[in-house]
Amino acid sequence: MTSDTAECLISSPSTARDIACTPVPDELRVAFWPQHFGSIPQWIILEPTVFAWMDRLCADYHGGIWQFYTLSNGGVFMAPEAENSESWSLFNTMNGNGAEMSAESAGIAVCMMAYSHHACRTESDAMTEHYYRLRDYALSHAECNAIMHIID
């Protein structure tokens, strides 16, 4: 995907701008993956795959606690917890692009990478839908340009 094909929607009206993002309470975390991905082949490897993408794209990532989020359009993602609103430096060696981004944006980017690859690997329409729901949120996100730069 290039910036020519995915335009950020911050300055133009869009229903995507109205997508609400809600943190998942701790007591509901255990059901997060089976609830949202249980019908997708090999869904059990999604969480470690997201961690692997973060490890691949962020030299300063060394594990940690992640927060889960649901979106009002049916999408979901996870993002690393950040201390003091620290920014994350991501660099994608596959496209030569780098960006400084918030923990939420870094989580969106690595989840989009994981979802896209998992959809291709499993040929799952449901996984493809998860990717596009998260993409809709990313396109309306304040850090849309940084996210799209990384996943390009």
Number of helices in the DSSP assignment: 5
Number of strands: 5
Tell me the structural class.
Answer: alpha+beta
> Low-confidence stretches at least 5 residues in length (pLDDT < 50)?
1-5, 10-16
Give the strand line-up of the largest sheet: 1-2-3
* CA gyration radius, whole angstroms: 14 Å
Oligomer: single chain
Q: In this structure, how is the largest beta sheet organized?
A: 3 strands, antiparallel
Describe this structure as you would to a colleague.
The protein has 152 residues and is an alpha+beta fold. The chain has 5 helices and 5 strands, in the order E-H-H-E-E-E-E-H-H-H. It has helices at residues 32-37, 46-57, 103-122, 125-139, 144-151, and strands at 21-23, 66-71, 76-80, 88-92, 97-101. Strand 4 and strand 5 (97-101) form a beta hairpin. The longest helix has 20 residues, at 103-122.
Task: Record keyword descriptors for this entry.
152 residues; 3-stranded antiparallel sheet; alpha+beta; disordered N terminus; 5 helices; two-stranded antiparallel sheet
Could you outline the blueprint of secondary structure elements for this entry?
Elements: E1 21-23, H1 32-37, H2 46-57, E2 66-71, E3 76-80, E4 88-92, E5 97-101, H3 103-122, H4 125-139, H5 144-151
Antiparallel strand pairs: 1-2, 2-3, 4-5
Summarize the structure.
The chain has five helices and five strands.
